[in-house]
Amino acid sequence: MSKATSPLSRQTLAVVISAVLGTSTMMVTAQTPSAGAGQAHDHHQHMIHAVTPEQPVGAHDQHVGHQAAMQQHEGHEHHAAMLNQKGFLRAEAQYPVPDVMLTNQDGEHVSLRQLLAGSKPVMLNYIFTSCTTICPVLSASFAHTQRKLGDEADQVRLVSISIDPEHDTPARLQDYARRFRAAEGWELLTGSREDIVTVQKAFDAFRGDKMNHIPLTFLHVADDSPWIRLEGFPSADELVGEYRRQMKQSRATAAQTGSAAVTDEAGS
């Protein structure tokens, strides 16, 4: 996999939105592209072809592919157009994680609430295995992020949730994980249609149909910190940078809280 291009410029236009989306309030920052944004866009287009190697197509895949061909052609034209966008939107939000049981690529049942509320920082996105446009880019970014993190990789949990549970069985997710050389710590999840829709709605990610979904990546580093919502195509460098900034901020907040507690005890 080629090295990620230079991160987008951090010059921002800050827009504060005090609106209630379900139970979440968000602060949105528009990330504007730098002079190298065209290179980043070319990188995204290249990744569609470069990061998805050929794999054997079984009879079931052929049947499913035949049935969905026309729908995917029309929908993926819309997805491909998204790759032309420059920059991405960054938001901070509070999302209540629904208490649902999903299934990972190894066929193990997983409590999503427990998985996301654990001690490890989490990066989360939504994909489906037959997607040929934005999903390979998002998945390649996750794969490259694991490599960029190096020794820190085991400290971050990556979670990809399929929005096509009727077709994305654990076996298909396992094949998909192999295609992107997913390392340990990257969970790919599927489940019932009802539960998947519930999860998407909880994260304000539901768009009614898999062909209408948008590129979203979420980052959460501590139980008392907000979720960082990135709409668009942040590079692996940007994901790692965001993670490290959030961890630094979380540690600073914890240190301040600890100092305040010590001061209160001394004064009592």
Account of the protein in words:
With 268 residues, the protein is an alpha+beta fold. Helix content is 41%, strand content 22%. The protein has a single domain (27-50, 61-261), classed as Glutaredoxin. Helix 1 (37-50) crosses helix 4 (134-149) and helix 4 packs across helix 7. 35% of the residues are buried.
List the helices and strands and how they pair.
Layout: E1 12-21, E2 24-31, H1 37-50, H2 59-82, E3 88-93, E4 101-104, E5 109-111, H3 112-116, E6 122-127, H4 134-149, E7 157-162, H5 170-179, E8 186-190, H6 193-202, E9 216-220, E10 227-232, H7 236-267
Parallel strand pairs: 6-7, 7-8
Antiparallel strand pairs: 1-2, 2-3, 3-10, 4-5, 4-8, 6-9, 9-10
Number of helices: 7
Major β-sheet profile: 10 strands, mixed
Which CATH C-level class is it?
A: Alpha Beta
Main-sheet strand order equals 1-2-3-10-9-6-7-8-4-5
Which CATH-level-2 architecture?
3-Layer(aba) Sandwich
User: Poorly predicted ranges (pLDDT <50, ≥5 residues)?
Assistant: 1-28, 32-73
Got a strand count?
10
Q: Based on helices, strands and strand pairing, what is the structural class?
A: alpha+beta
Choose one word for the global shape: globular
- The helix content is 40-55%
The structural domain count equals 1
As a whole number of angstroms, the C-alpha radius of gyration is 19 Å
Arithmetic mean of pLDDT:
77
Name of the CATH homologous superfamily: Glutaredoxin
The SSE order reads EEHHEEEHEHEHEHEEH
> What gap, in angstroms, lies between the N and C termini?
59 Å
What is the beta-strand fraction? 15-25%
CATH topology: Glutaredoxin
